[in-house]
Design brief:
Layout lengths: L1 H21 L15 E18 L1 H7 L5 E4 L1 E14 L2 E5 L2 E10 L10 E18 L6 E14 L20 E14 L4 E11 L18 E15 L1
Antiparallel strand pairs: 1-3, 1-10, 2-5, 3-4, 3-5, 4-6, 5-6, 6-7, 7-8, 8-9, 9-10
């Protein structure tokens, strides 16, 4: 009986929420919210980073199809949002944030088990400048798409380190540029706006710093290594 009562209460609550947000004639919360010239918010979320690796022909000549494997892990994100209204359906957004992630590189062509993996942790400070294209608001929801460019500072890059992979040190460049593309939905509540979104991030520059030895098995035959990432953010305005 207790479980049935809890289930019934949850059903009634969900039904009331659905009617209020998506019903035929829902009460429109925050009716003038989108008329603000400037507003702010914050986000929390998770991310998964990968690498897109391009190889020289000599890599395949030496190693066959034994390409480098990337094992991503789930990291977390936190940051701020600044939104500037440009026109009815177009906004400019600045979303600086802190992103922590970790990737593991596996080199199948290196037979020494002590040398064929590299752990690549990263703490990024991310500076995206994005255009937000919103659809027509329907009740208390409004979908949108995002696109833009970003700069990322990698605090764990080891760019200035004199050691390289021969001493177990994997090095990347501190700064990189990206383009971004994403989608999201604005949900208008009585006292705030809640926005879940998903976004892809695509590095535009080679981020790898090569080892001093041009024949290095870790970096010698790599033409470029660029970041790929997926962000899931939950924003409150």
């Amino acid at each position: 009986m207790k479980n049935l009562l809890i289930a019934f209460c949850l059903f009634v609550s969900a039904n009331t929420f659905a009617q209020g947000m998506f019903g035929k004639n829902p009460y429109r919360n925050q009716q003038n919210w989108d008329q603000q010239r400037v507003h702010y918010g914050y986000f929390l979320g998770c991310s998964s980073y990968n690498f897109k690796i391009d190889y020289s022909k000599s890599f395949y000549d030496k190693n066959g199809s034994n390409e480098i494997l990337v094992e991503p892990s789930t990291g977390f994100n936190v940051g701020l949002v600044g939104n500037l209204r440009l026109m009815e359906y177009l906004d400019l957004r600045f979303e600086p944030g802190l992103y922590y992630t970790r990737r593991k590189l596996i080199y199948p062509h290196i037979t020494n088990p002590d040398q064929n993996t590299r752990d690549v942790p990263a703490t990024y400070i991310h500076f995206p400048l994005l255009l937000k294209f919103s659809a027509l608001r329907a009740g208390n929801i409004r979908p949108y798409i995002l696109t833009g460019l970003s700069q990322t500072l990698n605090l764990s890059s080891n760019e200035t380190s004199k050691d390289d992979n021969y001493q177990g040190q994997f090095r990347m460049k501190k700064w990189t540029a990206n383009y971004e593309l994403g989608v999201g939905i604005d949900f208008y509540f009585e006292h705030f706006k809640f926005t879940p979104s998903i976004r892809g991030v695509f590095g535009l520059q080679d981020e790898l710093i090569r080892d001093k030895n041009s024949n290095s098995p870790w970096t010698g035959d790599i033409e470029s290594m660029k970041t790929r990432g997926v962000f899931i953010n939950f924003t409150v305005h």
